[in-house]
Amino acid sequence: VVIAGAGGIWVGLPGELLTKEYGEQPIVRVGEGPVAIAADGTVATAQDGSWQSLGGPGVAVTAAFAAPDAVWVGGVDGSVWTFAAGTWTACAALPDGGDPAYADIVEIAVTGDAVFVLPGWGGPFHATGACGEWDDRSTPEPPAYGGFGDAMSSRQGWTGLVADKDELVVTGWEGVYRSADAGRTWNYSPTIPTNHTRGLGWTEAGTVLIGGYAAGVIRTDDAARSFDAPNHGLTASNVQRVLAAPGDAEAAWAIS
């Protein structure tokens, strides 16, 4: 597990976390890989037990994903960038149509040669290869903002995106969506109330774990046809992150 905060980065098993400082900049977010985003907009990846700075693309970075051959980041302005062979390269612009107040990229997921990104106002959007063109793979209902009971920020609107080949799961203020065809069609899971989904994890066995507001950890083993809340012994009900344990299909960590 990797946890980031103003004092640095901690890596290891729960109860045995080791501090891995990263310069003098507070770490504001950790993405898959792992990849760390510092407060000054620079990005670092973990290599051989230490953090290596990649610099930054020149915009405030809000999401990142470290794939084996490249690092993908999204900016507060809705831009998407890749870092490979020592160079930052801008991807094609996402399609227009969203509220610029929620343009920031919230989540990025990479599986094979497919890249999926979630701006606050909608999506996800899909690209392959050098991300020269984006396909709209949006869920039926994008997050709603500004009204009574609506999300207040992009990170409330969308709370998670995981991808494994053609399997996609998106969680957010509107609930949980799952796709078996890379986002071309979506199944909505109305069992979980809207505005209750927070963290999102995916085990090696294909179980989807959802961090719930006032609901602990919710899981589904059958593509969101049914849900279970196995919260025996979990003392905190507001779970913000859920992390699947690598190498153990039956273990998970919950962070409140």
* Count of helical regions: 1
Q: DSSP strand (E) fraction?
A: 35-45%
Percentage of residues in helical conformation: under 10%
Structural class: mainly beta
Strand order of the largest sheet: 4-5-6-7
The ordered string of helix (H) and strand (E) elements is EEEEEEEEEEEEEEEHEEEEEEEEE
> End-to-end span in angstroms?
14 Å
Report the biggest beta sheet as strand number plus sense, adding barrel if it closes: 4 strands, antiparallel
Mean pLDDT: 75
Number of strands: 24
List the helices and strands and how they pair.
Elements (H helix, E strand, L loop, with lengths): L1 E4 L2 E4 L6 E3 L6 E5 L3 E4 L4 E5 L2 E6 L5 E6 L4 E5 L4 E5 L2 E4 L14 E7 L2 E6 L5 E4 L6 E2 L17 H4 E7 L2 E6 L2 E5 L7 E3 L7 E6 L5 E5 L3 E5 L20 E4 L7 E4 L1
Antiparallel strand pairs: 1-2, 2-3, 4-5, 5-6, 6-7, 8-9, 9-10, 10-11, 12-13, 13-14, 14-15, 16-17, 17-18, 18-19, 20-21, 21-22, 23-24
Overall description:
Mean pLDDT is 75; it is low at 12-19. This protein has 256 residues and is mainly β. The strands form seven sheets. The chain has a four-stranded antiparallel sheet with strand order 4-5-6-7, with no helix packed on it. Strands 8-9-10-11 form a four-stranded antiparallel sheet, with no helix packed on it. It has one helix spanning 154-157; strands at 2-5, 8-11, 18-20, 27-31, 35-38, 43-47, 50-55, 61-66, 71-75, 80-84, 87-90, 105-111, 114-119, 125-128, 135-136, 158-164, 167-172, 175-179, 187-189, 197-202, 208-212, 216-220, 241-244, 252-255. It is globular and about 45 Å long. A hairpin with a 3-residue loop joins strand 4 and strand 5 (35-38). The two termini are 14 Å apart. The longest helix has 4 residues, at 154-157.
